[in-house]
Amino acid sequence: MRAVLYYGREDVRIEDIAEPSPKTGEVKLRVLYNGICGSDLHEYYHGPIMTRTRPHPLTGVKNPVVLGHEFCGEVVENGRNVDDLKSGDLVAVEPIQTCGTCYWCGIGQYNHCPKPAVHGYNREGGGLAEFTVVPRSMVHKLPAGISAQQGALVEPMAVSYHAIARAQPASGQTFVVHGGGPIGVGAFLTLKALGDIRVIVCEPSAQRRAILSRLGAEHVLDPAGLNVVEAIRDLTDGRGADASIDAAGVPAAFKAALASTAPLGHLVVVAMHMEPFPFNALALLAGEVSVTGSKTYCNDYPAVIELMTRGAYPLEGWVSTIPMADFIERGIVPLTHQQATKIMVDVAGGR
Ligand SMILES: [Zn+2]
Ligand SMILES: [Zn+2]
């Protein structure tokens, strides 16, 4: 079968590898769509970061590895002791395997397990292969009405959903989402779906601002063209936002978010800041703003799938597909230049 393999920095090859078969407690999937993530870009240009040159402590897997952790597939074969899925069932995969024995796994906060192994970075297989095998416990069966492309969107939308949950949203509030990439779009769509919450989005790319407007965003601000702190104050009677989401990952966005969050508000950092930077901590004291982080997801898939069945995550206008053979040229490259928001690999060739 064809698969996209990561050998090392700027060394990704599309090769034929052996088709896997399910062991006890596992499920074999035919992959339909796999989204390309920002972390795949980091891995390509700056890695190994997520992948390992030495065996992973939980799985023993090291490079080369099959890439792809945002995917949807259909069940083709159950391993022993799996009897609640049938051939053709559409599923989304929660790709993080955890140790199950540490303190964090013990209290159910499994996204803080110190030894996570990600399918698509540190496990045998990934979503960028025609077939892959995962434990039954990593599989979420999708209800009728959800398409395979939407299924591949559950993983990144769970990242967005978790970030929103960390900000403790309530009806009547104003949220500001800084950054209109896939996680920012997901944050916006999640907030809209949750109900009576006003959302302001800040995004420097004109193309991405246009996408957000078409998705129904009423307030889309250009941080390169105006003072967003003042603009947010103007839109909130001078009070500032009840909560701000940093989905941009650049110092200017974090500082603007801190300066424009209302007293007692929340600022959630979900973007990866690759470099340390200084900021004025006096702003924390002045507004008693709760600054917090958001790491992947933890029991968030069911809520995302539920919102998806209610139409919360439309694909039109921001999700595009490419064939597996074009992974670098039409996937990694345009995402690097922000010429696209979310690109999915049509692994099965279009179903
Ligand atoms: Zn990802
Ligand atoms: Zn653990």
Describe the structure.
By secondary structure, the protein is an alpha/beta fold. The chain folds into 2 domains: about 1-155 and about 315-345, Quinone Oxidoreductase, Chain A, domain 1 (Alpha-Beta Complex); about 160-295, NAD(P)-binding Rossmann-like Domain (Rossmann fold, 3-Layer(aba) Sandwich), CATH 3.40.50.720. The protein has 11 helices and 18 strands. Strands 3, 5, 6, 9, 10, 17 and 18 form a 7-stranded mixed β-sheet that branches. The protein has a 6-stranded parallel β-sheet with strand order 13-12-11-14-15-16, with helices on both faces. Strands 2-1-4 form a 3-stranded antiparallel β-sheet, with no helix packed on it. Helix 4 (about 155-165) packs across helix 5 and helix 4 packs across helix 10. The relative contact order is 0.16. The model has no long low-confidence stretch (mean pLDDT about 95). One zinc ion binds next to loops.
